[in-house]
Amino acid sequence: MPTSDPLVIAVDASTTAAKAVIVDAGGQVLATGKQEIDLQVPGVGRYEHDPHQWWTATTAAVTESLGGVGQGEQRRIAAICLTHQRETFVALDRDGAAIRPAILWLDSRAAEQIRRIGSDEIHQLSGKPADTTPALYKMAWLSENEPEVFARAARVVDVHAYLSHRLTGRWVSSTASADSLSLFDIAAGDYAPSLLELAGVAREQLPDLAEPGTMIGQVDRQVLADWGLTQDLPLVAGLGDGQAAGLGTAAITPETAYLNVGTSIVAGVHSPDVRFARSYRTLVAGIPGTYVLEAVQNSGSHLTNWFRQEFGDPARGGRVDPALEDAAAAVPPGAEGLLTLPYWNAVQSPHWDPLARGVMFGFTGQHTRAHAYRSILEGTGYELRQNLAGLAQGTGTPLTTLRSTGGGSRSGLWAQILADITGLPIVASSVTEVSAQGAAMVAMAATGVHGKGDIAAAAAAMSSADRTVEPDADRHTRYAEIAAVQAELYPRLAGLFEELHEGTVQDPSS
Fold first, then answer.
1. pTM for the full model?
2. Which residue in 30, 328, 501, 508 has a CA-CA distance of 20 to 30 Å to 160?
């Protein structure tokens, strides 16, 4: 890239850390910074943050990234953009101080509100099936259990709006950020009064809205001075981390899905229209005027890490074990009849059942640790196959490619299993922080270097891949037969999950 081209800063304020990257117009990452964020666990299923750490971690990460480039490069920085953990929110007083800790997206305290309030009508209005992640239900829980919080709150904001205010003094969130709270009429692109009433919040407490890629305001001069910058620096409205990952892999057409094989497995496709189905949730996309259809599987590397921790080499502490990977690779496809429902952390797409539990089905005396491990990897693949079929049905366009990111996609065995089961080539991104890369694409589009405001063009120009895993046709045929059996397990067990939850499991034959 010419040395006169602009650079941008992108910040990803995630669940575990704030990460900052400095990126050029070709998508090359010139410098990075990272600062951890403490996860508070005040009770079973309860996860919280001190929101002040969102700011301290962000500014520390940005400062570290700036230290990785020279003054000449610093002067070329022309915009900053945010991406972040979705669905997380905090209530603030008139001074902007947190009234209580922020409640995170993975918090599951609102199970009773989900069951009581959740409905098909809310799904169609908001685009989000009733589930543990949308803030709507946790806000309803807060209204019922800690009513003084919203009574005192001057602002109720997501991560984007909190950081926007610290950067510019304006309470503004992106439509591709605030939408995930499940307070939107998604077709209208604005808050829905009926959903605000259910949540127990008022419109004036919520942030203003801006489309992704539009300028929110200039970063405060004191903040810039603390970072060592002297030029004006506009904050560009960003997007949630899932939509940002889609942009970061350049999965921006209906026939191409992004696949994030991380703690959870998330897959999504872009759609020109609002679509609804139980198998996915619908989100405002980072490309204005479009939407993302997204399927979420709770058990990704969370499950493989658990298996290695509990049943692997103790010396490895749950880290990837090459010997176990090799042993699992030697097991035939189908793990010789051992099937796994990977619902160790319940199930989101396509069943949205918080009571579902993990199952290994078909054990015989010949099965080993390697069989069980391969069965877990295959179980996630069967779920992915079913969810991708739902996405393709939603857009009406067959999928041709998966563009992947996340630590799990770096496993050669797992990536090959996923490719074989889905029958789709998997193209792995060469970028480590792919959500931050997506935010960098939005920021770069605002500079005009790839066409003024053209986020899709910026994504195409700034993405890169380092390998492709092709599916094996014979294994795909074999897996299709097994997938049909796997698909029967949840419907036959759903009632038993409910009984298990209630503590009244009975003999199914009685």
1. 0.90
2. 30
